[in-house]
Design a protein that fits this description.
Helix 1 (11-22) runs parallel beside helix 5 (105-118), helix 3 packs across helix 12 (387-415) and helix 9 (268-281) packs across helix 11. The protein starts with a strand and ends with a helix. 34% of the residues lie in helices and 24% in strands. The strands form five sheets. The protein has a six-stranded antiparallel β-barrel. It is α+β, with helices and mostly antiparallel strands and 418 residues long. A hairpin with a 2-residue loop joins strand 7 and strand 8 (138-142). It is elongated. The chain contains twelve helices and 19 strands. The chain has two domains: 3-186 and 351-415, FAD/NAD(P)-binding domain; 191-340, no CATH class. The structure holds flavin-adenine dinucleotide. Residues 7-13, 30-33, 38-40, 42-44, 48-49, 128-129, 156-158, 161-162, 165-167, 170-171, 347-348, 375-376, 386-389, 392 line the site of flavin-adenine dinucleotide.
């Protein structure tokens, strides 16, 4: 029986352990926190959006295009749902997103832990992996107070996002010591900080809007949904979805602008005609009351101010120029993005181990035979909606199975068994 050690007891590490143990390997998970699966508990606002019904190669970003999709196809969303159903989690779908029927992330973690126990996987918590040495066909795993010697190792130590859950970037250091290279690791699925001083005055507003991200006049990405305005800039799912592009452009030294459309259901001309008519219907209304009933008051006040319109001016005397300016303010609200929020606030990272150094079929390192990768440590990230966990499950499953099969093969070769 081959012996596989997995560094990291997160989603990908636990899945790798189940796959390797199911394939007959002896398995140990090394986890430096006091328990496994801490990050899993905070996923999906505590409900765990564990995969998505809508899948395509475009859902998985990497500098090495197409790499992740090959792995996802080998253990896809249907396989993930079947897997969890068999373990006892009944998948419930909402707008394509899958959650456990219990609506509790803890139940996903619980069934994984029960399965690890059933498969006799050893879990060493409170043990930091400090070094990995490859010597004479074996791996020596240096922990706090002991050394493990194994046939294969899977590095599933996560990224640098939300370090409080355990993923503190130490996995990158371990891989780099073995010769691997990193695509710059940056916060993704994260809030964006903006330069303008007015954000404090609109903090707390939640509004449906389309967020489009530009460098110069080049559109990088856009998304629509509930945007949250904060004291420092913009947040909410559409902001998260475009944030990786902002992080990469800012890292490259480019100027980044976000353009917000606060009336995405109307064209510019439709909104302008609507305003012209509205001004005629109640001409005595003050400018400060003109948008009441359409948009949140904090935004109305800001827009009137930024358009240099007197608050007390009557709607009937607003000029066409002022109404065009107001329409542009609402449809093309431009804000300068200065940075992303920190790794601590990010849900994931973009960047990671360069996947060109990893076999796209087995997830085995091309530089260190016998070492495999799984999860977010690799340069793969997805949008909100269950894609990052899908990647953790798919990569964990493939790495676990391949490591177990390979360790069995290498033992057969060493002992000359048929
Ligand atoms: C708030 C939040 C909400 C999220 N919601 C969702 C969601 O709903 N759907 C979705 O798809 N994705 C979501 N994600 C992203 C998703 O949780 C991650 O992509 C996924 O958990 C990554 O799994 P992983 O196994 O690669 O890494 P992790 O889950 O981070 O696991 C890595 C593990 O390795 C351990 N470790 C690290 N270094 C060492 C070391 N040197 N020695 C020993 N142990 C080590 C860590 O303690 C950790 O337990 C969310 C993330 C956050 C932060």
């Amino acid at each position: 029986m081959g012996y596989v050690v997995i560094i990291g007891g997160g989603a990908s590490g636990m899945m790798a352990a189940v796959a390797a143990a199911s394939a007959g390997a002896k398995v140990t998970i090394v986890e430096h926190k006091d328990r496994v699966g801490k990050k899993l508990l905070s996923t999906g606002n505590g409900k765990c959006n564990f995969t998505n019904a809508s899948q395509s190669a475009d859902c998985y970003h990497s500098d090495n295009k197409g790499f992740a999709w090959k792995i996802v196809c080998r253990f896809d969303e249907k396989a993930v749902c079947d897997f969890f159903r068999e373990l006892g989690v009944y998948p419930k779908e909402r707008n394509g997103c899958y959650y456990p029927h219990s609506a509790q992330a803890s139940s996903v973690l619980d069934v994984l832990r029960m399965e690890l126990e059933r498969l006799h996987v050893t879990i060493l918590t409170g043990q930091e992996c400090r070094g990995i040495l490859s010597r004479k066909g074996k791996f020596h795993i240096e922990l706090n107070d002991r050394e493990l010697i194994c046939d294969k190792v899977i590095l599933a130590a996560g990224s640098k996002a939300a370090a409080v859950t355990g993923s503190d970037g130490s996995g990158y250091i371990l891989a780099k010591k073995l010769g691997h290279h990193l695509i710059p690791v940056l916060p993704a699925l994260v809030q964006l900080k903006c330069a303008e001083s007015f954000y404090k005055s609109i903090s707390g507003v939640r509004i449906n809007a389309k967020v489009s991200l530009f460098t110069e006049e080049t559109l990088l990405a856009s998304d629509q949904g509930e945007v949250q305005l904060t004291a420092y800039g913009i947040s909410g799912i559409p902001t998260f979805q475009v944030s990786r592009y902002a992080a990469k452009a800012l890292y490259a030294g480019k100027k980044v602008t976000a353009r917000l459309d606060f009336a995405p259901e109307m064209s510019f001309d439709e909104l302008l005609s609507f305003f012209i008519q509205r001004a005629q219907t109640r001409p005595q209304k003050k400018a400060e009351e003109f948008l009441t009933g359409m948009f949140p008051k904090k935004l109305n006040d800001l827009w009137i101010r930024l358009c240099d319109i007197e608050r007390s001016k009557e709607a009937g005397s607003l000029t066409k120029r002022e109404l065009v300016k107001l329409t542009a303010m609402i449809k093309e609200f431009s804000t300068h993005v200065t940075s992303t929020n920190s790794f601590e606030q990010a849900q994931v990272c973009c960047g990671g181990i360069d996947t060109r150094e990893v076999n796209p079929l087995t997830l085995e390192s091309r530089l260190v035979p016998g070492m495999y990768f799984a999860g977010e440590i690799l340069d793969v990230d997805g949008p909100c909606g269950g894609y990052n966990l899908q990647w953790a499950w798919s990569s964990g499953h493939v790495a676990g199975r391949e490591a177990a099969n390979a360790s069995y093969q290498s033992i057969k070769t060493r002992t000359g068994a048929q």
